[in-house]
Design the sequence.
């Protein structure tokens, strides 16, 4: 969320990042401070509208006095803390995390990850051709969206968005354990037999493209998906009086998917089924 | 919460199992039959916050169904969810988290056969093969190979669980094919387990402190416990007052015996000082580290000591409710502790007015369901609260926000039991036992290649060699594993290592929870390492990437190494060892909790200290 509520003025606290003085408002995370200082730290499971889950561990940094590395996304900055973001130790863990993910998950639609793999000189192939992968087939069980868990990094964002952080529908959960853990609805049933209300807020937060509009999934399969040829137009949803903002992604004069700005002060990127998927009438030219 | 429940209906058995735990449903909103619906039901939905506050009954509810029917069907899960206002997807996530539950139909009897370190060295693989040959499809028994059952002194071990009302269990250890098959097919007629004292070779030795009552008192008799000095420590605690008790515990130098060695007095003080109430006391009896069985022996042999110790800890830290989170694989400890709690309650040693002091405290037992990770303190909170047993990120620490988000003291069984001698003998006398930095007596779980495996009590500072000699170590010692799967191997020529926290640390290894497992030359090291890697891969909760995938890559590399080791060495071996080191380092540095952080310890020590694969 980029809109900062005007609350009680917050104290600034001072600490150092890579030897440089940093001043951030109390309650900021190390990641907030790093970004304010213009430092790039990779993140995957961190979401701007959600409480950090710190599950992916790609944002780890070194903090003086801490036995282990700490996740920048969730650890709050403390006065006097000495943070180092670019040590060999931190870079090593980031590299391994990228290798572990890239060797087990299909990251082909995860933004930025290819650049990080290059930057950290990660070599996912070195675990050999027999390295276990998720090996999941896309779940296509409804007309609105597809769950391709071969691309899932288990960031928990969809679960949190569906649960008490936003939607309160609780249709999905992490199930199983360890490497066999997967996102699923109750009894691992098809989506159509679940509590899902098709708000698509899980798609909005998915960082890897594991959850995608059926339209996007089909176009990718057909090889016609071309983000460079798409325009984005933000408008107001016409269905009810709330006034949610919609960003319509248009390719070849067809709406191909709908997102919502995360900095909207009312909805923070969340929509309902009508705003998210109910756009066909716009292009019904018959 | 507008929850959607499926159309599946529970069977009469499943409904009865849930209702036996929660009572009959009050209205059709909670799943009562609609034909008998009362007019009042039509006017409002019961439930809401009051029902949601019972979320912590989800795990007991899953146990109730699994105990009665042997597995958890859709209809049963949906009914339980309706009763507790829990989203079915979340309950499904919880049910699939635990190894002892199944969401697919399976036979009514499950025979858990331990294939972990001590048992595999005692022939568990052959035992499994023999059992599986006898109990094939259609035998009505599902044979499940699993992690350590905490019966290492009687390896190899098997545990049969036969669902029904009531659920029946039988332990076979040391197990033969015939004995295990009998336990599984007729648990009621299986021979009684030997008394807990059989696991204590020193039993009856008057110099013992923590184990002095094991084998001496009748574990079912509160009078016998009191006749042997029971409840003098609690009286002393009431004399001292809460602050006085904390001072004694702090001065005694007691540190946690679960493995992390955190000063107990400091933990208690930090919790007692929290203005937020209520405070909770949690006893971590989810002893699952392979090779550890000391807490089981304490609970089976001297259950009232734990009840008394928990009462003292709660009194000192201002808690009025305690939870005993007990390993699901410990049926006898469960029976003994249940009985002890009932007796203590009946005699006013738990309840509203303990010993007439106006102090109220009670203890609830919560059973684990087969998840090593739930021994992690915050994962244990999530498990009790009815969520998946995944560790929370710290800070906040349990003393600030623990169980139900409240200040919580969590201690291991052995740690708590140490409080009794601290109060009866006084902090200075207690601190005089052991070394300056590791005070008091310590329990060690010795198993593997020794003549007299069992729980041993020695003052801190005894050497590894002395302990092994006491247990009668066999000829041809190849390696000793200290601290269990999360610990490390040492060589036979390192037996002068003092068994203290600082001594093992200086020697570059760990004491952990007190596991000492001896392996002779007949046990192939690569197979042991594979078993350890398999254990961590199975038990990883899957929350963070370094552990979830790292433990898989570690196991894969060890498989390659084991195959290569038989034939050749050289470049391929050193490549895989380098890979293990890199993955291991990231697991240690970047995992959320101790499981991932220690998953590479034993393998690393085997490579560096023992020269495995050379």
Sequence:
């Amino acid at each position: 969320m980029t809109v900062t509520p005007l609350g009680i003025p917050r104290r600034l606290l001072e600490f150092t990042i890579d030897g440089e003085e940093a001043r951030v408002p109390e309650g900021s995370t190390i990641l907030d401070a790093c970004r304010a200082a213009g430092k790039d730290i990779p993140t995957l499971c961190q979401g701007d509208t959600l409480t950090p889950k710190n599950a992916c561990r790609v944002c780890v940094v070194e903090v003086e006095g801490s036995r282990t590395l700490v996740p920048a996304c969730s650890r709050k900055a403390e006065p006097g803390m000495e943070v180092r973001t670019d040590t060999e130790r931190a870079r090593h863990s980031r590299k391994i995390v990228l290798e572990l993910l890239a060797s087990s998950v299909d990251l082909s639609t995860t933004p930025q990850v290819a650049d990080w793999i290059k930057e950290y000189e990660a070599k996912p192939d070195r675990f050999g051709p027999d390295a276990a992968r998720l090996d999941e087939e896309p779940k296509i069980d409804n007309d609105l969206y597809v769950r391709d868990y071969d691309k899932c990094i288990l960031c928990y964002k969809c679960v949190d968005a569906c649960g008490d952080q936003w939607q309160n529908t609780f249709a999905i959960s992490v199930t199983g354990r360890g490497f066999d853990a997967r996102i699923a609805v109750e009894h691992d049933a098809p989506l159509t037999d679940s509590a899902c209300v098709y708000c698509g807020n899980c798609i909005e937060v998915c960082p890897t493209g594991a959850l995608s509009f059926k339209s996007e999934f089909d176009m990718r399969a057909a090889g016609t998906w071309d983000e460079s040829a798409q325009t984005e137009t933000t408008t107001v949803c016409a269905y009810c009086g709330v006034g949610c903002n919609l960003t319509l992604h248009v390719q070849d004069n067809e709406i191909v998917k709908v997102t919502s700005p995360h900095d909207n002060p009312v909805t923070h990127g969340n929509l309902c089924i009508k705003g998210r998927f109910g756009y066909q009438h716009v292009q019904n030219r018959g | 919460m507008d929850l959607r429940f499926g159309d599946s209906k529970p069977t009469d058995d499943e409904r009865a199992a849930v209702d036996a735990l929660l009572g009959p449903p009050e209205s059709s909103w909670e799943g009562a039959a609609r034909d008998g619906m009362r007019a009042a039901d039509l006017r409002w939905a019961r439930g809401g916050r009051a029902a949601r506050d019972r979320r912590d009954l989800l795990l007991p509810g899953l146990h109730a169904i699994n105990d009665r029917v042997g597995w958890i069907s859709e209809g049963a899960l949906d009914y339980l969810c309706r009763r507790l206002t829990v989203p079915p997807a979340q309950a499904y996530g919880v049910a699939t988290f635990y190894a002892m539950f199944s969401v697919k139909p399976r036979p009514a009897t499950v025979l858990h056969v331990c294939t972990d370190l001590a048992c595999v060295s005692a022939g568990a693989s052959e035992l499994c093969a023999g059992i599986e040959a006898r109990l094939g499809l259609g035998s009505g028994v599902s044979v499940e190979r699993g992690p350590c059952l905490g019966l290492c002194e009687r390896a190899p071990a098997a545990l049969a669980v036969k669902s029904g009302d009531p659920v029946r269990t039988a332990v076979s250890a040391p197990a033969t094919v015939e004995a295990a098959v009998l336990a599984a097919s007729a648990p009621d007629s299986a021979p009684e387990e030997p008394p807990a004292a059989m696991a204590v070779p020193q039993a009856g030795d008057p110099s013992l402190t923590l184990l002095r009552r094991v084998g001496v008192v009748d574990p079912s008799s509160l009078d016998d416990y009191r006749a042997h000095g029971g409840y003098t420590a609690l009286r002393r605690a009431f004399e001292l007052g809460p602050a006085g008790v904390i001072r004694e515990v702090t001065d005694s130098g007691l540190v946690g015996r679960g493995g992390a060695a955190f000063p107990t007095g400091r933990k208690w003080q930090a919790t007692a000082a929290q203005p937020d109430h209520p405070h909770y006391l949690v006893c971590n009896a989810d002893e699952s580290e392979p090779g550890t069985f000391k807490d089981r022996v304490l609970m089976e042999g001297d259950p009232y000591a734990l009840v008394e110790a928990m009462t003292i800890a709660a009194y000192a830290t201002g808690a009025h409710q305690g939870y005993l989170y007990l390993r699901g694989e410990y049926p006898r400890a469960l029976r003994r502790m249940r009985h002890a709690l009932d007796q203590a309650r009946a005699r006013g040693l738990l309840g509203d007015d303990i010993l007439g002091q106006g102090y109220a405290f009670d203890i609830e037992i919560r059973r684990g369901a087969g998840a090593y990770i739930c021994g992690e303190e915050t994962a244990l909170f999530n498990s009790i609260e009815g969520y998946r047993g995944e560790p929370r990120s710290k800070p906040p620490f349990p003393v600030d926000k623990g169980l139900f988000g409240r200040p919580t003291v969590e201690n291991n069984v052995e740690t708590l039991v140490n409080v009794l001698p601290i109060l009866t003998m006084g902090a200075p006398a207690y601190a005089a036992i052991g070394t300056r930095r590791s005070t008091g007596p310590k329990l060690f779980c010795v198993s593997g290649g020794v003549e007299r495996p069992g729980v041993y009590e020695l003052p801190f500072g005894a050497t590894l060699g002395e302990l092994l000699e006491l247990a009668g170590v066999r000829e041809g010692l190849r390696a000793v594993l200290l601290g269990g799967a999360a610990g490390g191997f040492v060589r036979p020529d390192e037996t002068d290592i003092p068994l203290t926290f600082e001594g093992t640390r200086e020697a570059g290894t760990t004491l952990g929870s007190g596991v000492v497992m001896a392996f002779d030359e007949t046990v192939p090291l690569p197979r042991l390492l594979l078993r350890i890697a398999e254990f961590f891969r199975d038990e990883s909760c899957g929350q963070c990437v370094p552990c979830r995938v790292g433990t898989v890559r570690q196991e894969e590399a060890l498989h390659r190494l084991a195959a290569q080791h038989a034939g050749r060495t050289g470049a391929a071996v050193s490549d895989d060892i380098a890979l293990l080191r890199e993955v291991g380092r990231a697991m240690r540095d970047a995992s959320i909790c101790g499981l991932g952080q220690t998953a590479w310890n034993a393998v690393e020590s085997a490579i560096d200290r023992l020269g495995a694969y050379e």
Observations:
- Chain B touches chain A through 50 residues (CB under 8 Å).
- Chain B has a mean pLDDT of 94.
- The CA atoms of residues 204 and 216 of chain B lie 6 Å apart.
- The radius of gyration of chain B is 24 Å.
